[in-house]
């Protein structure tokens, strides 16, 4: 619950009542006068304290407004509302691969994406209509997701900086486009993990359009597989994008097995 500014737990009315009760008990005029002065001083102190607390809340409220956030000022034990924003962690750093109308391979970085169905296996990526890739996905009804490693962060970022409309990003980075044998889209040979997808659904959400792709195959370099033949996150070393500060991060420590550690409670 937000706390109201200007609230003090000690009310001046309580002090007033207490001191007047004391004064009524005494017939001594000088004592009554001194008590009255004391009441006035206490009133002033309480008033000043209330103003100090209120102005503290006002200052915090102004800061929140400047950051464009909702005015929900709370005490230190409560959460601060940051407004309706795309702030959640982690988000991926994926290269969405596609062919343009001339068959030129292109790719763009997408952080707005994630697995969205287990059966059929599906992945969703959200693209702005302004991207060159958007038209390609609409036309070809296919895309790939190439997952770069941490060591490839510069090349990956480049794919999010320039447009395939006027730049050959593959030529510029030295990455190799490989035609998928299952869908009408290229993937990045140098990326250790790749998904090949056919577009199943398209949702116009607003600024972004979400493409839900059915994953027809996952391809991984032998070097990133674990003993069970699964892509090992520590070998793939995917790049995590942090939307809040727009910084790339790496993968941290293992915290335990899912569907298992919770049993310790
Ligand atoms: C870290 C990062 C994440 C991005 N995520 C998205 C995204 O999810 N959707 C999107 O439309 N653009 C995203 N972009 C911007 C596009 O990658 C960028 O506009 C790119 O130049 C579009 O390429 P294209 O015009 O060749 O399609 C991202 C860029 C970066 C650097």
Describe the structure.
There is one protein chain. By secondary structure, the protein is of the alpha+beta class. The chain folds into two domains: 1-83; 91-251, Pnp Oxidase, Chain A, CATH 2.30.110.10. It is 29% helix and 26% strand. Strands 3-2-6-9-10-5-4 form a seven-stranded antiparallel sheet. A hairpin with a 5-residue loop joins strand 2 and strand 3 (105-110). Helix 1 runs antiparallel to helix 2 (29-66). The protein is globular and about 100 Å long. The relative contact order is 0.12. Flavin mononucleotide (FMN) binds next to strand 3, strand 5, helix 3 and helix 4.
Low-confidence stretches: 1-12, 58-62
CATH architecture of the largest domain: Roll
CATH level-3 fold name of the largest domain: Pnp Oxidase, Chain A
Distinct small molecules bound, one entry per kind = flavin mononucleotide
Top keywords for this entry?
single chain, 265 residues, alpha+beta, Pnp Oxidase, Chain A, 7-stranded antiparallel sheet, 3-stranded antiparallel sheet, 12 strands, binds flavin mononucleotide
What is the element layout, followed by pairings?
Layout: H1 12-24, H2 29-66, E1 91-92, E2 94-99, E3 105-110, E4 113-117, E5 122-128, H3 132-140, E6 142-147, H4 153-161, H5 169-173, E7 177-179, E8 186-188, E9 193-204, E10 208-220, H6 233-236, E11 240-242, E12 247-249
Antiparallel strand pairs: 1-11, 2-3, 2-6, 4-5, 5-10, 6-9, 7-8, 9-10, 11-12
Quick structural summary:
This protein has 265 residues and is α+β, with helices and mostly antiparallel strands. The chain has six helices and twelve strands.
């Amino acid at each position: 619950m937000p706390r109201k500014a200007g609230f003090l737990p000690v009310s001046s009315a309580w002090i007033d009542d207490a001191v007047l009760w004391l004064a009524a008990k005494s017939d001594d005029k000088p004592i009554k006068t001194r008590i009255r002065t004391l009441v006035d001083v206490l009133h002033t102190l309480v008033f000043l304290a209330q103003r100090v607390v209120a102005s503290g809340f006002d200052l915090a409220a102004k800061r929140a407004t400047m950051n464009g956030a909702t005015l929900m000022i709370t005490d230190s034990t409560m959460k601060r509302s940051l407004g309706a924003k795309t702030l959640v962690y982690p988000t991926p750093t994926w290269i969405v691969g596609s062919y343009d109308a001339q068959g030129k391979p292109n790719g763009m970085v997408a952080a707005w994406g994630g697995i969205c169905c287990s059966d059929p296996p599906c992945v969703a990526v959200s693209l702005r209509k302004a991207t060159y890739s958007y038209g390609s996905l609409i036309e070809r009804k296919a895309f790939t997701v190439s997952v770069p490693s941490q060591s490839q962060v510069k090349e990956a970022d480049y794919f999010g900086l320039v447009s395939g409309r006027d730049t050959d990003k593959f030529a510029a980075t030295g990455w190799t486009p490989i035609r998928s044998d299952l869908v009408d889209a290229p993937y990045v040979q140098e990326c250790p993990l790749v998904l090949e997808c056919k577009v199943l659904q398209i949702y116009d959400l607003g600024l972004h359009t979400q493409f839900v792709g059915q994953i027809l195959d996952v391809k991984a370099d032998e070097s990133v597989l674990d003993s069970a033949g699964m892509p090992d996150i520590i070998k793939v070393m995917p790049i995590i994008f942090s939307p809040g500060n727009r910084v790339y991060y790496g993968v941290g420590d293992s915290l335990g097995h899912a569907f298992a550690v919770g049993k310790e409670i």
